[in-house]
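Exercise (ungraded).
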Amino acid sequence: MALLDKLQIRWSLIPAIAAIGAILLVLSGLAIGVYDEQTYRAQKVREATAQGEILAATVTAALAFDDRPAAQEYVEALRVNSQVVSAGVYNEAGALVADYARDPGRHADPTVALHPPAFVGSHLVVVTPVSEAGQRLGLVALRIDTDPIARRLSRYVGLGLLLVMALLVVGVLAAAHAVLTRTNSDLADANRNLQEEMHERERAESALRQSQRMEAMGQLTGGVAHDFNNILMIASSGLDLMERTDKPERRKMLIDGMRQAVDRGASLTRQLLAFSRRTSLRPEVIDVTAQLEGMRLLLDRSLGEDISVIVDLPPDLWRVHVDPSEFELAILNLAVNARDAMPGGGAITISGSNRPAGSDATLPGDHLVLRVADTGSGMTPETLSRVFEPFFTTKAVGKGTGLGLSQVYGFSRASGGDVRIQSEVGRGSTILLLLPRTEEPLPLVTPDPSPVTRPPGAQGDLLLVEDDEGVATLVSGMLTELGYNVTRVDCAAGAVAALEANPAFDIVFSDLVMPGEMDGIALAREIGRRWPSLPVLLTTGFSPGVAAAAAEGLTLLTKPYGIGALAAALDAARPN
Amino acid sequence: MKWAPVVLSAAVLALTTVGAAGAAGSLEAPVKATYLYKLVPFVEWPAGAFASPTQPVVLCLLGGDPFGAVLDQAVRGQKIGARAIVVHRLAKAEKATGCHVLYLSAPRALGAAEALQSAHGAPVLTVTDQAAGAGAVVNFVLRENRVRFTIDSRAAAENGLTISSKLLSLALDARAGR
């Protein structure tokens, strides 16, 4: 960029340089002309003076002894020099003794006085004294032709022509520069517009993705609410039954049942949150089997009780390089579509296979094929031809926006793959998702830590900042289990006061969203400033806080969490 | 006005010619007087002829003075290089020593021949009105009513004089047919 700027500056100097160059050219042309003219005149004077001196030297005796014929003879000798217009020999008194004139009928001036060489009209007049051994004898005058002004000017025609050419080149250069500058600025404008449009488009695409996600979420809400009712039902009835029994085995069974239900609910909300989080496209290498396993619960629970989901994947399925959230959305969209095609219930089968290169002419390279098949109503050929169009839907108003399959199509194309549909009215539909294979390894995943019970106080002193009494009690219990001496405060200001009273804590574990002037992030900032060696772990169930904490570079544990995840997060937050 | 220079030149020419034509009597002597000193710049004397660079040129007249005051007036103020010209009128040939130019106005006069003889071999420019061959270096002659001269190169050489070629080219015998 710096080089470009320099070039720009140099470019902007060109008109000035061109103008200065043109002026210099004209000035130097004039100077050369004037110098040449001076040189020419000086040369002419030298020649004429020499000629005059020769004549003066030869006519001395003729003048001394008044030998006019001899003088005439000498002066006539000048005939050989065609440039001599006239020549005169004058005696001491300045009277003409002998003369010669080139043109017939002309004569030299009858009298003459000594004067320096002078240009008279187109002639140069030189008067030379005649003397012998210091004795003054007379004068000699020569009138020499100089080149006419036209002929002298013609000598500069070449120079003038060069000058004109140079000026022309300078002019053309300046004009070209002007055009270039204009073109440059036009290009810059076009580039700016393009950038703006690209930015605009990016925003629109991002908004589209989010709305597609929300659309799918909307489709799932009913099922999820139903599932949560079931979970709450289990918990509520389990609590009722526990109140009525004292048998430990019975209570143990009830607690296990409730724990399973709560785990399922937590897992469900985590998947929902992860799914609805606004993310930009970030492809990574994924294992399709694991990815589908991760959303298994969501699929099972959200589609309705009369829909069964069968996942049938071979163990050696190839890896693909796609954006995981878009992949999940595509699967969800396909599942929702399949469910809607089976109002009376049925089965959705998700199967997969490897398709090596060469088996499909339109897709070069190895591909993984995912089939999502239903046992529903199928589609007519007319519907089939329009299913990938955005906003095309056969569903009733309020049931769907028609963005589902267009997301599937967009995702597969963006990932370098393709999507195909096999459908027949009355015999169900099968959608084939083709994704290109990748040879890259899977990203390393840290194994889920198992909870460890440690002796009380072994892990040091922990400052817990939590405003909710109920949560604080439960978390304190877990922390004590993990071997921490827990001191609890209910706000960030309280935490600062506690640290001022006793800075010897080993770690601070704080909620992100708290009442009061400081929230968890502000507290972490304050601690980082005043007690820089003290580690801080934040926790929240509120998804916008995740991005905020990440932007600050803070460690964050998302709610709900189990004791194993808590232990791992605390260990990770501490230096060793 | 174009004719003016021509007419003027013609008039001057005519005057001179007329003057020269009538010179036989009245103008011959002044012309010769002028020529006498005008010869000096064209002649080179041998080393030793002059004692110093500023020593005047001595112009001697022997056998009478045909010029009178004319010659004195002509040479007054004239300089040949750094030398002035002085005129000596000699009564006897014996006194010719010390002269650089010796004019014998009456060659047939008594002692003139002897004087010429004695000057032979000496660094003296001898001038006479005689015909050539009498032994003088320069002889004035009248030709077409004009005063011209002949130069005896051999005599000049014998006297150790070097005559400028410019002068030689004007001499009558040097220019055949004139």
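Further reading is listed at the end of the chapter. For now, observe: Confidence is low (pLDDT under 50) at residues 1-24 of chain B. The first strand of chain B starts at residue 43 and ends at 44.
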